[in-house]
Amino acid sequence: MTLFKPNTIALALASLCCTNLTFAAEQDTQQVEKITVTGSQIKGVDLEGMQPMVVISSQDIKDSGASTISELMSQITQTRGGEGSFTTSESGATSTSTPAGQAAASLRGLGPSSTLTLINGRRVAASSFASGTQNFVDVNSIPLAAIERIEVLATGASAIYGADAVAGVINYILKTDYQGAEVNLSYGNSFAGSDEGRYNLNAVWGTELLGGRLTLFGDYYDRNSFDAQDRDFTRNPALASNYSYLPKNTPNIYYYSAVSGDEIGAPNCATELVTTEYGEQICAYYSNQDDELISELESASTGFIFTKDIGEITWNTDFFYSRTKSVAVSSPAPINDIDDGEGPWVDESALDAFDEQTRNDLLDQMYIDPFPELTQAGQQLYGFRFDARFASPRTVEVETNAFRLVSSLEGQIKGWDWQSGITLSQSKSEQQAIAGIYNRYKYHAALAGELCSDGTIASFDGNDLSCASGDLVAMYNPFLTGDSSNDSVLAMTQEQPTRDGKSTVYAWDASISGKLFELGDNYVMAAFGAEIRKEEITDVPSENSRARAEDEYLVDVFGFGSSLSEAKRQQFAAFAEFHIPLTDRLEMQVAGRYDNYDDFGDTFNPKIGFSYRPVDSLVLRGSWSTSFRAPSLTQAGVKLRTTTATYDCGANQAVADLYCSGESFESSPNVLELGNKNLRAEESESLSFGLAFSPTQDTNLTLDYWQFEHDDLVDTDMTAVLDAAITDHTLRHCGIVPEGQMGISYDEDLCLVTDNSGLTIEQAGANLTEILDAWVDFDNPRDAELPLYRDHIIQLQNTGKQTVRGIDLAMSHDFEFELGRLSLSLDATHYLEFERNKPGSDEVEELIGTWRYPQNIANFRVGWVQQDFYASLTAQYTDSYADDISGLRGRNIDELEDLGELDANGERDVDSWTTVRANLGYDFDNMNINLTINNLFNEKPPVAYGSRRGFDSINHNALGANYKVSFSYFF
């Protein structure tokens, strides 16, 4: 892939952006077809010289070794760095994970909802399952077999394509007028002993039919999962102190029930006990035991492109359908009390799972107390509290069916080119939990021996338990392992919540372009157009995974969030664009677009661009534009989202003193997110200028500066809510947050203490520092922190702004030898600035060089072509950046200091990472054989202690050396 570079600038600045698309000699005698390129609606006019453009050609796609759009887009520098783009490495079964099997491409790290995804210049429906609350187009649903090339315009494009093209546009261009047939078969895998096999079969066929030109395509892809246990460097935790108190299968005795006040490790722990920061010996859990680094994925797609000339009018229709299926896994759910508090109660008879000596030893160290509440059936039981999680990882299966139909007419009228088309695009997803999800009420009934065989809960008459229907089953014992009868009782408490989503786009557009008037020896060209669009989205979870006010927001199942949202929006837009050749060497692009939303008002966004050629081999270029992004449909329509929200004690000392014992770690409690009708739209201003230099036909250089000023970002900010609650008593609640209100939920007993003035935490003017001191004296907690309860209610809000600036550099040179052609190319992005508001603060922080934000990203390629043989080596470089030490707990930092991993400032860097991709192939008369080896030298990802995975799965991957062999046959 290459940045858009001139072959000779006089021919057209963009003509070499696809290095393998050449002009035929017959061009002198044939009329060249007018095309519309990304960044302009004016047909047949070269405007790319005014803006930086990256084009991934069909040859680039073949050389990349990629089997999916997601794999392909991760190879360009404009989509790497930061946390915007994501692949299935981030998929999981919880609401904080990205949707299973889905992936998104984000430009400049600004987020997927700020990048407009087009197919043939028109929109495609977003995934109905949002990533958080950001809607995105699932690029895994776009069939790679149908793609001729991809054009990436990484600068603001709202004046051309719509107000939400904040960071730019990725336009996928489909194959048209294909002649003949092609079948491609490929297989890929790692060189490790585990099986991460990838299978791909696709075909393209083109012919003349009914007086028109038909292209058919089909694609099938199947990929196995890749687990942390499959590599020695991810099999064990990066830090021994990354433990969780909640083991699988072998519960610990909760510290509350221990005479010593210390957790008691499970006597039958399957692994060696771990010493905690409190000096306890516990049976620990490490998340890498169940971590799935890449989820399994199966996709199938088919479609057609049909073009027919009807007199002087051309009818174009393209259609594709895709189906993807994926299974994603998250760590097993914690077992909580019925009210979601930690340390659930169990009957004292549970200790009978151990031999008499062990049982008696435990009883000597424990309190046996009455349950604080009657059981669900009304029994008063005696027992103790334990710490554990379920044994089975939370597992979901997602199937997504997507289709897109576009039909358009185009022609000429009095020398002007016109076109008009309709679009219908839909993405429909169905999710079902297939393992690891348990009903809290049934589970606690089973713990108390109150579960009936039909899944109902028994009644208690004061003496006996009885079932209205079915039989009473045995009491479930969480300490009893390897007992099939006991396991069958647990299985009865399992649930399979579902989630159904649908996203639909209906659109009509029309445009006309041509010569407006003569200016000197040239013509002012113009385009005018309009668009009407309706978008709808629904995301509906089953009742057993929803939080409801009547149930005090308790979800029926443990550890499984959901999002309930529904929204629709209508939009009208009109645009005008002008190409003005001021002189033979100075050209301007002036454009403006008006958008009217039925729910967020209207906006006008202009764009001005120029290109100046002082000499034929040099172009100076620049552009300025504004953008407006209304909150996404999910953000506008979210009714209640059950998830977690992270607060960062390293970013706000006042929050750290009250909620983190003065330390600087991050924590992620359960929250309920609500929509906000008072949200403001995000606004952005972009600027770019640079040059394109082509001193010879074989040498090309582009250098571009770009920047974005992005205001009123929409997100949630738990740190800000905790900070606001210090002075705003309306955000402070003892117990559950009342319906219709928002804020923080504290332990109910916190209202039993007051500050020095006698005020409780719910009262105006209360001093939270004094209340914390009073709480410590009252409860003697393990940590000197205000006790948070559960289900804090926070709203989406405009959280602040961000400023991003950088430089793109691209160079290429070809050397012609008698035996063949040697080509060298370099593509690099250097970030100058990435500033954003700190969580819960007006203070601005610089992200460049911090966790997950490398300053430099580059690709260097050496290629060789000798007749029908070709080969290349591509090095992908990701710069070093700071490890996320501030997000770690004190025990982690202590371990890092013992390991000598921290510098004098208590910090460390994640090392830079360079991998090499080798590609070679041979073109026969009617077939092609190609071999790609990724990460040729099997470079392990740099160690990153800021991630529990031990590496940064956004910027790096742990797959190691892997290959892909492909065979293509042409008919």
Number of helices: 12
Which class of secondary structure composition applies to the elements?
mainly beta
Query: Which value, in Å, is the CA radius of gyration?
Result: 30 Å
Largest sheet: 22 strands, antiparallel, barrel
Distance between the termini: 27 Å
Residue share in helix: under 10%
Strand content: 35-45%
Determine the mean pLDDT.
90
Record field, number of beta strands? 48
Low-confidence segments:
1-33
Instruction: Characterize the overall form.
Output: globular
Task: Describe the protein's architecture and organization.
The protein is mainly beta and 971 residues long. It is built from twelve helices and 48 strands. The strands form nine sheets. It has a 22-stranded antiparallel beta barrel. A six-stranded mixed beta sheet has the order 1-2-5-6-3-4. It is globular.
Q: What are its keywords?
A:
mainly beta; 6-stranded mixed β-sheet; 48 strands; 9% helix; 42% strand
Topology:
Blueprint: E1 2-3, E2 54-56, H1 58-64, H2 69-73, E3 115-119, E4 122-123, E5 147-153, H3 158-161, E6 168-174, E7 180-190, E8 198-209, E9 212-223, E10 226-227, H4 232-235, E11 252-253, E12 274-275, E13 281-282, E14 292-294, E15 296-310, E16 313-330, E17 345-347, H5 356-364, E18 369-370, E19 382-387, E20 394-413, E21 416-435, H6 440-447, E22 459-460, E23 465-466, H7 484-491, E24 498-519, E25 522-541, E26 563-581, E27 586-597, E28 601-615, E29 618-629, H8 633-637, E30 638-644, E31 647-648, H9 653-659, E32 666-667, E33 670-674, E34 682-696, E35 699-715, H10 718-725, E36 732-734, E37 744-746, H11 768-779, E38 792-795, E39 797-816, E40 821-837, E41 844-846, E42 856-866, E43 869-878, E44 881-882, H12 890-899, E45 909-910, E46 913-923, E47 927-934, E48 962-970
Parallel strand pairs: 3-6, 33-38, 36-37
Antiparallel strand pairs: 1-2, 2-5, 3-4, 5-6, 7-8, 7-48, 8-9, 9-15, 10-14, 11-19, 12-13, 15-16, 16-20, 17-19, 18-19, 20-21, 21-24, 22-23, 24-25, 25-26, 26-27, 26-30, 27-28, 28-29, 29-34, 30-33, 31-32, 34-35, 35-39, 39-40, 40-41, 40-42, 42-43, 43-46, 44-45, 46-47, 47-48
